[in-house]
């Protein structure tokens, strides 16, 4: 079920190692979140931009976000970075509130004024995940200049991504360093029943031959993501 995703993510990892010199992108700094619960499968990646310029965010929804399922009249699903990891038995409530180190609060956020948004309010800043007939959403990518990868109160590491359906938390997954040398179960600080189970498979089959070479040739991290969009 995760074959395609694992391949794609493996390509990112392999390419980012190779492109390190040009892009300053180090695989150990990339964060990822794999969501697989309640029929919702989604992958998120956060790659740091140079000079603490935020992150390039890559999102792929494999299944579950159907128009039929969507409650909101907008036909969209909100998603955020929440402060805590997923609780036992995929408990999304245990993730707490949104990542909001600046104490912005939830009230006034608009996409037109992203500085009024909580750092973790990804759909507030970039729009909701838009439901489709099939429930899968093609890969998308954007830059978010607010996301941070360090600082005890500011980093996204060790936190979680939560998808909502008109407010209700319907799926969640831990954010862990996408580093082949680290163990997701320790790095994600989550419980062993969280979606970490899939993480190991993301790291398998890294040498993907021609695709990796092609991606490497494109040079920079942004291009890596761009190439992946075409898959
Ligand atoms: Cu949320």
UniProtKB/TrEMBL annotation:
Protein name, entry field: Superoxide dismutase copper/zinc binding domain-containing protein
GO biological process, alphabetically ordered: superoxide metabolic process
Transmembrane residue ranges: none
Any Pfam family the entry gives: Sod_Cu
Ranges of compositional bias, category Polar residues: 181-190
Residue ranges of the region described as Disordered: 181-208
Position of the signal peptide: 1-21
InterPro entries: Cu-only_SOD, SOD-like_Cu/Zn_dom_sf, SOD_Cu_Zn_dom
Keywords from the UniProt entry: Signal
Protein source organism: Linnemannia elongata AG-77
Chain ranges of the Superoxide dismutase copper/zinc binding domain: 57-167
GO molecular function: metal ion binding
